[in-house]
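Hi F.,

I've been meaning to write this up properly since the lab meeting, where we talked about keeping a consistent format for the predictions we share between groups. The idea is simple: the sequence comes first, exactly as it goes in, then the C-alpha cells exactly as they come out, then a line or two of notes. No screenshots and no reformatting. I'm using this chain as the first example so we have something concrete to point to.
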Amino acid sequence: APDTPVIDQAYSKLSNSITVEWRAVPGATNYMLTAQDGDSFVETIVKNSPGTVTGLKPATLYRITVRAINSGGKSQPSPFRKVKTVLAAPVLSVRSVSCDSIAVSWEAVHMAAGFSVSLMRSDGLGRMLKQNTTNTSLIFTNLDPGALYTIKAYAWNANGMPGDDFTYNQRTSPNAPVDVKVTFNSGALRAVVSWMPTEGALTYSVTVSSGLLELRCNTSSASCTLPSLQCSSEYHVSVTAYNDAGSSEPTDAVSLKTIPCAPVNISIEEDGPGHLLVSWSSVSLGHYYVVFVKSDDGLEVHCNTSYPQCHFQSDCGFTYFISVFAYNKAGQSPLGDVFNYTTAPCCPGDFRAVFTSSDTVRVTWAPVRGADLYETRAAGGSGVVLCRDTATACTLSALQCSTPYNITVYSFSEARGSNTSCPPQYVATAPCSPEIKNITKEGLSVVSVQWQPNNEEATYVVTARGEAGLWHCTSTRNSCTLMDLPCGSAFSVSAIARSPAGQSFPSYSIPLETAPCCPHDLTLTQVTQSVTNISWSVGRGAQTYVTTLESPKGQAKCHTLQTYCLLGCITCGTNYTVSLRAISETGLTSSCSYQGYSSSACCPSGVKLYRLSNNGIRVFWQAPDETRSYRADLHGSKGNFSCTPSSGLSHCDITRIPCGDVYTVVVAPVTDKGPKLTLFSSFCPKKIYSVTCSGSSVGMVIYRGKSNAKHI
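Output, unedited:
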C-alpha cells in the first residue's frame, strides 16, 4: 500500500463542498477524500490533488482526511484537518414592483450575520448597485424601465466569510407608452390608436371604455384599430404596455367623441299661423343641428341651431319634406328619417259673432282654401258648445248666462285635420238673472233687499213697483236699500243685472207690503172723570187699531175697527202716555206715539156748609191732594159767590151771602194757571143747599139732596 498523504490545506468555497490540497504520494493511483461530521461521513475518490468533497451541509464543521490508493491497497488516513463549509446562498424572490424598481426578498440563512445584494444591467450598461443588509428584503429604485437586470446575493457569517452566491435575472416592467394618438373615421365609425413604442415592452393592450361598456385590443405593434364604435358616444382610450415583469401604468385616458347619432323623436307642428315648428330630442354629443325643409313647390330653406327645435315660415295647405342632421367636431350624423308634413288649411277670415238672443249667437265667416269642414267651438262656463257644418255659418244656442266664451272656427281637411292655430273671438253673454234671497225691513220706509251675486262685474238694479209709484236702488254687491217707501203700500220687488254684455232677465218678483201709516190727527176728550174718548184720522193700510193709555197706576186699552174708542177706568189726576198701533190686514204693525195726556184732577169729597155770623157761609171739604188748591163756587138766583182758601187749607168762607135762596155748591181743584172751570168743575159733584132766613136775613142752611133735606 502507498504511503500516507499529508494535507497541505483544506478550505470551503461552496456551501456543499470542501476542497483539499496535498502532496502527491509515489505509486498512488487514486486518493480517497473523507469528510466526517460526527457519525456521518462523505467519501470521494479523485485522481490527484486538489480534490473536492461534495454533498456536504452548509455551515458545518467537518474532519477532512486523505488516503492514497494503489493496486496494493489503501494507505493510512492522513492527519485530519477541520474545515467548516461556507454559508448557503440565500434563495431570492424577485419582482418588479414598478417600472423603475425591483424588490428582492429571501428566507433567513442559517448562521448568516448579514447579506450582500448587488444589481446591474445585464447588458453591462450603467453602474452596479450593491447593498449590505441584515434584513431579508430590500428594494432597488431609480432603475431603467423595461431593462433586464442581474441580481447576485450571498450571506456572510460572523467572521465576514462570504457564503454561496445566488444569481437571478429580473426585468423591470415597461414604462407607459407616450404620444398616444386617436384617429377617427366618421364614415366607418372606427378609430386607429397609435403610440410610441416603449423600451422592454413585449405587447400592448388598448382599453376603450364608455360607461359600462369596455373594449380591448391587444397587439405587439404600436397601433391598433377599433372597429364598430357607437355614434353619440364618448370613449376613453388608454394604452398599457406589458412584458414578463408585468404591466405599465395605463396612459392618461384620451377622449374620443364619435359623430352624433341621427336625431330621433322628430315632431312637426304648426306653432301659430304661418309658423312651422320642427323639434327633436337632443342628441348626445351634438353641438349643433341643421334642418333642411323643402316645400312641394321646390323651395328649400335650412336652419342652423344649437337648440333641439327650429322655426320656419310656412303657408297653410303646403306639404314640406324635412330632414334633421346633428354635427360635432367629429363630423355629421348619419341620415335619419325624412318626414313630410302637410300644413292645415287656413283659418277662416271675416269672422263675425252676433247675439240673436241672450243665449244664442250666430257666427259667420268667409270660406278658406282646402277646408272640407268647419267646426265652431264655444268654450266657456262648464262645457263646450260645438257646431260642425260644411257651410260658412253656424248658430250656437243654449249658452250660459254671465259667461265669457272663446268662440273659434276651425277648418278641417282630410290630409291634416284641423287648423288648431285659429284665433278665438271673445264674447260674453248677458248677466244671469239675480235671485232675491231676503227682504229685510230696516225702518218704516227703509227696506234692504239681498240677492245671490251670481255675476262678475255686474251692476244690480232693484225696483219696487206699486200703486204709489216706482222706487229703485242700485249696487254692485249683493244688497241695496230702498229708501223713502210710503207707508201702507203694497209693492212687487224684482231685480235685474247689467253689464257691458247686456241686461239680464228680471228676477222673480217678491211681494212687499209696508207697515200701515200712523194716523196724523189724534184727539182725546174726557167724557167723565173715569172715561176718555180717543178719536183719530184714518191710517192708510191699517185695518184695526189698538190704543193704549198707560201710567204707573194702570193701563187702559181698546182694539177696534173704527177710528175712535172709549177708554174707561181712567184715574183722575194722572199723567198717561198715549200710543196707538195700526195693524194691517196681513198683520203688519206700526207703533205710533203721541203727546202725553193728563186726566182731570180729582174732586174733593165731604163738602159741607156752615153758617157764620154776619151772613157768612163756611165751605168745608176733604182734599184728595193737599198740595193742590181748590175753589168753592155757590150759584144761586140772588147771585154767584166763590172763595179760595190759602194753600194747604180745606175750607174757605163766603161773607154776606143772601139768605132765602137755594145755592148749587161745587168745590173743584184749581190748576196752576187758574181754575179750570170748563173741564175740572164739570166732573166734580154738585150739591144743593138752601139758606133760609129765620126772622132776619140770617137763615138756616139746609142740604137738599135727592131725598130728605139735611141740616148741617
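Notes:
The longest helix spans residues 677-683.
Residues 97 and 273 are 73 Å apart (CA to CA).

If this format works for you, I'll send the rest the same way.

G.
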